[in-house]
What does this fold into?
Amino acid sequence: MVRVFLLLAKLLIRCISSGRDFALKLYRAQRSGDLRKLFHATVLGLAGSILLVASLMVAGANPVSAISQLLTGSVGSASAISGTIREMTPLLILGVSVFLALKAGLFNIGAEGQFLVGSCFAAATMLAVGGPLGVVLGVLVGAISGGLWALPAGYIKAFRNGHEVITTIMLNNIAVNLTKWLVSGPFKGEKAVSATTATLPINSQLTPLIKIGQFELPQAVVVGILLTVGVGYWLTKTTSGYELRAAGANPTAAEFAGVKTKQVTVKAMFLSGSIAGIAGALQIAQFEHRFYDGSSVGYGFDALGVALLAGGNPYGLFASSFLFGALNKGGTSLMGLGIDKGITTMVLAIVIIIFAAIKYRQRGGQND
Amino acid sequence: MNLAVEMTQISKRYGDVQALDQVSLAVEKGTIHALVGENGAGKTTLMKALYGALIPDSGLIRLNGDRVTLKSSREAIAQGIGMVSQHYGIIGELTNLENLILGAENGPVLTPAQNEQRAQELAQQMGFEFDWSAESSTLSPAGGQKLEILKLLWRNSQIMILDEPTAMLSPQDSDALYASLKQLAASGTTIIVVTHRLPEVFEHCKRVTVVRGGCLIADHEVAEVGATQLAEEIVGGSVIERPTPVSSASGVTSLAVSDLEVKGDKGQVAVKGISFDLKAGQLVGIAGVDGNGQRELFHSIIGYAKPIAGSITLNGDSWIGASIGERIIAGLRVIPEDRHHEGVIEDWTLFENSSLGLQRLAEFSNIGAGQAELAPRMAEKFSTKHGGLNQKMGSLSGGNQQRFVAGRALEIYPKLILAFQPARGLDLNSTTKVYREIRRRCDEGATAVIVSFDLDELLDFCDRILVMNHGELYEPKPEEARDRTAIGRLMVGAA
It folds into this structure.
């Protein structure tokens, strides 16, 4: 009896000490960085899932069937995946737009407005010119008009130190009303009853690049992928991209390093707006085929979350825009269960907050 | 011996770092005691333990023979201990009187008349003069230091800890400060001075304690120790010699400045029409008390501040209107004053930081390849300690960041080196190495301009010394070019 007890005690002590060793190892590893990132990603995923389950239960749904519905609706079939990619496309390109501005130290809340202005003028151009040439010119006009729409915010930030968050929000409001007026008047389709342009002729509508049964790969998402890779390369491998990142990370040090930070601010804002304009133009050419009042469902605002969730890495935009796209698409199919689509938005928002908190903690930790 | 302070076997650990390892310190009452050591040796940690700003892991503290446990600075102040830290806490917007009583008010209602009377008494006792209703932003660095000492007297401190009290002062002001300190000591106050300036130790202190790497190394009566021995104890090995600087100046003018006027950040004219010619090969030191226009001069040569009048030329090319980038291409290399804000990006890796400021040079035309090739050389040049070049700059200590920034500035064919307090955060031997490398670049034909508030450092390494005072530039007479006292007089405008 005593022997058994002793054995048990020994075993217990060994368990405790090996447990402590393991904890110590884990602690050291998480201090070393890589594991820490993995750890954070796991925590983020877990927290998001728990929140999703909890909120579904609060909403009165069976979490198991709701989540399976969410998955089926977003990635469960070829057509569901196509729908997710369709949702993902504008989010990816707008994500690149916001991401680029963030790297220059600018928070471009105005992606929504630049997207609207870009898609509105692109639609008008495509309709006026027609054919494939119309699409090319339309994308170009979308880029330029989106860029010009962002430019005042860039100039005000650089030369008058007016905060870009305020100015871009104001520009968003103007964009909404300007485009509403344009499609109610000058750009209004001849036979249109509501505020909308005419529909693009068939030869101006972008067809899917690949179409296998129900699965479609739109050309626009390929452009988005190329843009992401291109911007990623530019930021990390070129001198001007390096200077842009320096200006964003520490403007005074960048100035001392010979970077003209004011010019960088203006340039970054223009480029960010152009990319948002391209997103708008492609949205018209590939998916909507016309511009109408209310044609953006707030992609520009979702893109802020996409860019933030990507962390510092441009390729993170693929994952984050896919996640947003899948939840948007899957959320729609939740409605069949009587659950409001908004529940996925809420979960996304909380995930972003947790993510931001982790990022902030890491930054704070550096100084101790 | 009557000991005011007796710290026995004090230890303190931060994570993996043993900041203090059984360090003991005994200070005789009514004396000036020096605590010396390099940056990171544990001086400040030890003093914080005495001031209650941190609680040691182990060890005893006795004050006047009685054992005490100091859990906070408030308790230490109540025991009569006072401390002036290196970056002292005078608030410019308050008046001198308000600063004096800040945190030690007599009650909820201020009694200015009464306070001023006591302030005046304390000042007279020390031989200081203050305009009590003036804003403290008008004080000189020496005035600020004096006000800090009065603050301690106001709180009835019997034991004063002064961290690098003369770091910002001219030699004359330093001497005056020590004269007051001696008077205080004679009246029974105990003073502990944390310093790295050995001449001060020999001239003014009675005993000296040396710490290095968190350990107690030596404890001497100052009269019984030699300068070389003390320096070696501080460094922990032989001290690299500092031979008398020899100029390799050619006859060719490189940097020429004439009638330069620059405004400061408060709109005042900070540089008042100064002119000078520097030759290729010269290593020039600009001495002066902080805030006499050195910063603005520096910024205007870099191109960060726009002069309101005058000209700057390098090798005959005008730099008025030239961008910072163009100046860098022409050979400008900078070791900036405020490395956190001006020199590095702490969120970036060492690789990424290696090209900062040099990104438009041919060496970095392929930026990734350039970083891979040059970052290791820049880090090695002054033995930057780092955990890998792909680690963030923010993970390095201040001294190591400084080593890296200095290495970067001196790596790629500099033509004009501008350095503002290049030894900031560096130990004695690293300082010597940085100056040696600057000298080597000068021998190759570069010109170097060093701004420092430490005149001894400039005298040790520069072959020509200029002085700035109130925005004007002075050059000592040839026969007094290396005369510490004469230069000191120029620094305070008493020539």
